[in-house]
Design goal:
This protein is mainly alpha-helical. It has 4 helices and no strands. Helix 2 packs across helix 3. The longest helix is centred in the C-terminal third of the chain and has 13 residues.
Length: 91
């Protein structure tokens, strides 16, 4: 949420200072990207941007959980959507 925003789709203070700008996932989304591409980006990062690699801090299961969440975040079941909005409100 620090870089890609919370459920409200608004950029946080750190995100506003990034160049290249980080997509605000609740607004811009990555639902059109194959989950494998998103997983690769999470694991390896994106060179010459602010996107770090999480391959050494998250295990494969966690990386795929994030990738699949992002792939479905525009069609979350009501209970999951409520939880996501609660987290965003705290962020």
């Amino acid at each position: 949420m620090v870089c890609h925003g919370g459920a409200d789709g608004r950029a946080g203070k750190i995100a506003r200072g990034l160049y290249q700008t980080a997509p605000q996932l609740a607004k811009d989304g990555v639902e059109d990207d194959p989950a494998g591409v998103v997983s690769w980006k999470i694991q390896h990062g994106i060179r010459l941007t602010g996107m770090p690699a999480f391959g050494k801090t998250l295990n494969q299961k966690q990386i795929w959980e994030v990738a699949f969440f992002l792939a479905k975040m525009d069609h979350l079941p009501p209970a999951a959507k409520r939880e996501w909005k609660k987290i965003g409100a705290k962020g």
